[in-house]
Amino acid sequence: MSLARKLLVIGLALPLASAAIGHLQVGVAQEKPAAKKEAKAPKGRLPAYYASVVTEEQRTKIYEIQAKHQKAIDALKEQLEAAGKALEAEIEAVLSAEQKAKVEAAREAANSKKKKAADTEKKPEDK
After folding, report:
1. CA-to-CA distance for 111 and 114, rounded, in angstroms?
2. CA-to-CA distance for 122 and 57, rounded, in angstroms?
3. Residues 42, 67: contact at Cβ < 8 Å?
4. What's the whole-number mean pLDDT along residues 2-30?
5. At what angle do helices 3-22 and 56-94 cross, to 10 degrees?
6. What is the reported pTM?
7. CB atoms inside a 10 Å sphere around CB 67
8. How would DSSP label each residue in 9-78?
9. Rg for the chain, CA atoms, rounded
């Protein structure tokens, strides 16, 4: 498969995967102490507009379905991240050293501006 075709597939898959992921709970599972081995009902997040129409039994089934697919979704996220990094690296390889320096300076300026804006929002102004 050519690079252009791979990028096209990634470009199409990213929005679809993001939409699918948006409907699922994304989180890190925390391990419980070995002493407590209770059978807890699976928890998740219902898709938009489902909460008012599903029964408790359906809610539980939806959470189980989400849990069953979470590993595959996480693996796809990792693949998308790796593909994005590879894309950035190939694009950057096209630039000259001078152009790379200008891009890096622009990134640093943008990050500095974002940090300054965030700090300003956190600190109320004295008036």
Report:
1. 5
2. 43
3. yes
4. 56
5. 150
6. 0.50
7. 15
8. HHHHHHHHHHHHHHTS------PPPTT----PPP---PPTT-TTT--HHHHHHHHHHHHHHHHHHHHHHH
9. 22
Tokens for 80? 């998308």
3-state secondary structure 93-122: HHCCHHHHHHHHHHHHHHHHHHHHHHHHHH
Tokens of 92: 């950057």
In residues, how long is the chain? 127
Q: Could you report the per-residue pLDDT of 33-67, keeping only the tens digit for each?
A: 555 556 666 678 999 999 999 999 999 999 999 99
Residues sharing a CB contact under 8 Å with residue 76, sequence separation 6 or more, in sequence order: 13, 17
Identity at 37, one-letter amino acid code? K
